[in-house]
Amino acid sequence: MSNLLAVQNVTVRFGGLVALNRVDFQIEQGTIYGLIGPNGAGKSTFINAITGIYKPQEGTIRFQGEMIHGHKPHRIAQLGIARTFQTLGLFPKMTVMENLLVGLHGQLKGNALSAALLLRGTKIAETAGRQKVLEMLSYLGMEDLIQRKASDLPFGHSKLLEIGRALLSSPKLLLLDEPTSGLSAEERQKTVEVIHRIRREKGITIILVEHNLPFIRSISDRLGVLNFGMKIADGPPGEVLENPQVIEAYIGKEEGHA
């Protein structure tokens, strides 16, 4: 398999704090790559560097061979990289349909808030975008919730709606930031099924940031570990989770809080 994403010697600093320290990642096309590490290890910074929210001071980021570090977030999205966030970014007073339409047109315009302000009172729901949204809701099994306000959705459905909004841009690379955080066992299983379908049916490469070790071990093809901004392990999940450095830096700390 060829590398879809190549991150080489990337360093991100905030004043005197080094959030990422010369990290290297090679993400193969068509894989699910899990990323773990303690709180503050640099996982979200890594995602933000890929998506253009943070600009690395050193190193390179290539997507499909094209240098993308330094690009603005909407340009990176146009190239085929989409993401979700730990904190839901839905518009609570809008319906499920409207939230997805905002996501679709916000990606095209580069500004979701502007799209939200323009949405009501237009004929946007009669465009081809509406059909695309309907197909996405059917794909997620949420077609019965089309007119439900986002604020009235169960948390698991809200998380799926975030994933659906990211998928509307037809990405080649999907970054999921803690997609099962706060979910019940039933909701988590539904999310697992959706993630497997995304890879299997759409061929999308996925980078998955998670704290739930059994979940990420079961779903990932490869697993990377960050600690204090440095990559300390990378490989098959079983091998990585048995690495003494990983046990000390991540698993040991989790057990210590149990």
Describe this structure in words.
Residues 110-118 and 254-258 have low confidence and may be disordered. The chain has a domain at 1-80 and 209-258: Rossmann fold, CATH 3.40.50.300. The protein is globular and about 50 Å long. It is of the alpha/beta class. The strands form two sheets. The protein has a six-stranded mixed β-sheet with strand order 6-7-8-3-9-10, sandwiched between helices. It has a four-stranded antiparallel β-sheet with strand order 2-1-4-5, with helices on one face. The chain is 41% helix and 24% strand. Helix 3 (96-109) crosses helix 5 (128-140) and helix 3 packs parallel to helix 6.
SSE topology sketch:
Elements: E1 3-14, E2 17-28, E3 32-36, H1 43-50, E4 58-63, E5 66-67, H2 73-79, E6 81-83, H3 96-109, H4 112-119, H5 128-140, H6 155-167, E7 173-177, H7 185-202, E8 205-209, H8 213-219, E9 222-227, E10 230-235, H9 237-240, H10 244-257
Parallel strand pairs: 3-8, 3-9, 6-7, 7-8
Antiparallel strand pairs: 1-2, 1-4, 4-5, 9-10
Secondary structure tally: strands: 10
What's the rounded overall pLDDT mean? Answer: 87
In which range does the helix fraction lie? 40-55%
Number of helices: 10
Order of helices and strands: EEEHEEHEHHHHEHEHEEHH
* CATH homologous group name of the domain at 1-80 and 209-258: P-loop containing nucleotide triphosphate hydrolases
Category from helices, strands and their pairing: alpha/beta
CATH topology (level 3) name of the domain at 1-80 and 209-258 = Rossmann fold
Strand content: 15-25%
Largest sheet: 6 strands, mixed
| Overall geometry | globular
Poorly predicted segments: 110-118, 254-258
Strand order of the largest sheet: 6-7-8-3-9-10
C-alpha termini separation = 40 Å
Query: What is the CATH class name of the domain at 1-80 and 209-258?
Result: Alpha Beta
